Amino acid sequence: MAFTPEGYDGFFRRAFARLVLFLIKIGASREEAEDSAQEAMTKAYEHWDAIEHPEAWVRVVAERMYLAASARARAAPVKAVAGGWAGDGTHTDVDPVVFGEQQGKVFNLLRRLPYEQRRVMAWYYDGFAIAEIAARVGRTEATVRSHLRHARQRLQRELYVENAVARDAAGAGEGTN
After folding, report:
1. pTM value surpassing 0.85
2. 84-108 pLDDT, tens per residue?
3. How many domains does the chain have?
4. Alpha-carbon distance 12 to 42, whole Å?
5. Range of the domain at 142
6. Pick from 21, 49, 82: which residue ends a domain?
7. How many whole angstroms separate alpha carbon 66 and alpha carbon 21?
């Protein structure tokens, strides 16, 4: 049984900041540390009556949560590609009813791009400058500019082909009347 003179509330107020600092010391960012500490404190509240050494208990739980979250974050891109969420070459159409016809067309065109090109185009499409995109995605500005250039070239080709097909279809339809 967890015995602290101040009870859980007092323990939380006294220990939370120190727990966050502990996690930062072992390598967590402030945000990661706060998230893991909050989760550990929540677990401590749920198991309060069974905990003998709350200071140590929350450190062990918080560290495990931080390490598990870090592992999930590292595995996420691999899982996204394996699950087909991050560009395995296939794509599904975006519903124009949900997004509007033009925006749906843009989304569908973007899905045809390789992942890195699609990612920087998405950032650029949302109004971010090249320098900010580079900082956010962990690439150099030159790499971001290169991805944007290649993406624009590919999108131009895709649009040209789409428009040519539409013109051909319209021309074929006129001849059958």
Report:
1. no
2. 565 444 444 545 555 567 766 777 7
3. 2
4. 10
5. 96-175
6. 82
7. 13
